[in-house]
Amino acid sequence: MGTQEDERIVAQMGTREDEGLETRLLLPGEEGLPQIQQSPPFSLRCRCRQSLNLHRHSDIHVIAVVDPTVAAIFTSSSLSFCCVPSFPSIAVILLHRRRFPRFTLSAFPLILCLQDESGGLYTGDGSVDIKGQPVLKSNTGNWRACPFIFGFDCCERLAYYGIATNLVTYLTTKLHEGNVSAARNVTTWQGTCYLIPLIGAVLADAYWGRYWTISAFSTIYFFGMCTLTLSATVPAFKPAECVDSVCPSATTAQYAVFFSGLYLIALGTGGIKPCVIQFGADQFDDTDSKARVKKGSFFNWFYFFSNIGALVSSSLIVWIQDNAGWGLGFGIPALFMAIAIASFFSGTPLYRFQKPGGSPLTRVCQVLVASFRKSNSVVPADSNLLYETPDKTSVIIGSRKLEHTDELKCLDKAAIISDAENETGDFSNPWRLCTVTQVEELKILIRMFPILATGIVFSAVYAQMSTLFVEQGKMMDTTIGSFSVPAASLSTFDVISVIFWVPVYDRVLVPITRKFTGKGRGFSELQRMGVGLFISTLCMSAAALLEMKRLSIAKSQGLIHEDVPVPLSILWQIPQYFLLGAGEVFTFIGQKEFFYNQSPDAMRSLCSALSLLTNSLGNYLSSFILTVVTSITTKGGKAGWIPDNLNEGHLDYFFWLLAGLSFVNMVVYIFCAKMYKSRKSA
């Protein structure tokens, strides 16, 4: 500021004649006061002797520039603050040196906390940097941090799908397993990949935080990729090739090495799954309305870049595996996993971090125990009589307070203040008394479960892409001119569909639907998921119709008892893959957004893991249905619906079964969605 303005400020600040003190404002960067460069809270470390003697002719040091509401906590007989006229939201803390004779500037914690939703310097959602310090909005988080997260997820998805997409082919051609056994092994492994996120979520929410959880499990992931590569490269670790249709089985040791690598990958990918997209969403300040809109787009583009990696896997990596060898085909994904880890760590200075809020499972148990102990108590009609801390923020680290709801009143008993607690004033035992926010956390989880359950059937449908869709494609004409297309590569069209639908949804459908719904994101999360469930029914119907056509050609060509492809182009599978991709954009992205926005603040990783649990249960459901169908349809020595020679079976019946389940599931979902009540912050 200029000299005249400085003089005006000094004049308005005046002098402290009652104590004989005269003050002058020194702003950061002026002579005598070093420029503040660190994030608060921190100590102002003066490097020159002169700066240690500010106001050498007065008894006051300039200590900090703060928000007046924060400055109030320093007001006492020893401290005072005054507003800067040019900046009404800024105040200056003044320290009387005569009352702190040994005080130095470097020992006093500075606070710079200029907060407001539109132009505040610091985030308002409690996010910090890697050192635990509050972070500036201007140089952290938001879209500037996203390229590193997108890069990590793109390369990680390339690594994952580089294994998953063609795994059933490796099991049947290299480990010499049958169709049903291979499909069951793949879906069981994929189910495990989506079950382990519960472990990663608890560690992230309770102990490590999302960043360190991603770091730890990514390392395990990489070791698993290396082990799997060795199992396909070292001769002693893989079975011998078939000789004249005689295929030696894999030994126990060979199976051990292969499945060790495979399930280390499951542990690694499962551990990071509930954290990566949540960590990305954490980069957007939840208290800023503009950032909330950007966060809605983030979920779409996160899935977009995920599928870029999947596109490379389902096309180039699958072709390498089928034509250049499995050692190279598994080694390239391992290399990309290393690149993913490097990308993630590169963005560390730009990231915003949410502190872990303690074990969410412990808090759930505390509510259940406390409500059981007070099962004979009567819930008061006035919810204000239930226990909640008077502070603005919740006692749960990283969580805002939640508004009381009238459902599940039996759980409210955990927040009833007993006569004994009133008399002693001891409210410190959460196993006897919980806050309303803690009770509402559990209520939210319970309300989410019906929505969660209806995602299982969709995941069972999705599992067919890497199992029976591939088996179906292998029994079709895979040649296009002189080029042979690996059956697993058709999943490329699922990825292309996603890459097509994400920008169409974000840039076309959202603006159009916004005009009719009045919602900033166009569709609500529940509406979006419902559309996806309807599309899944169409997908399985398309697959069933194609299989009916394929079997009719096999019959007309006399190929029923021949284990050979029928003269029907594999490109006819494109519609079912394209429909499945469209269903993903609506259902899976809708799920991710729903479970982030509706979950309690300190349970976001856990709720993300619960959404991934639907994928796990969907894969297990697919394995279960396969087992039951095979058991029933092969009685009496029959070939069954899904024999090793699909020309003798009725894979179309299995697809129609899944189409029927999808339709029933959609009807149930509509009912559950209408009953659902959104969470409300206090």
From TrEMBL:
Q: What is its main location?
A: membrane
Q: Which SUPFAM superfamilies match?
A: MFS general substrate transporter
What the entry lists under PROSITE patterns is as follows: PTR2_1
Q: What is this protein called?
A: Uncharacterized protein
**One of this protein's GO BP terms?**
oligopeptide transport
Listed A to Z, the keywords are: Membrane, Transmembrane, Transmembrane helix
Q: Which family does it belong to?
A: Belongs to the major facilitator superfamily. Proton-dependent oligopeptide transporter (POT/PTR) (TC 2.A.17) family.
* Segments traversing the membrane: 220-237, 257-277, 298-320, 326-345, 444-463, 483-505, 526-546, 566-589, 610-633, 653-672
Cellular location(s): Membrane
Has the keyword Transmembrane helix been applied to this entry?
A: yes
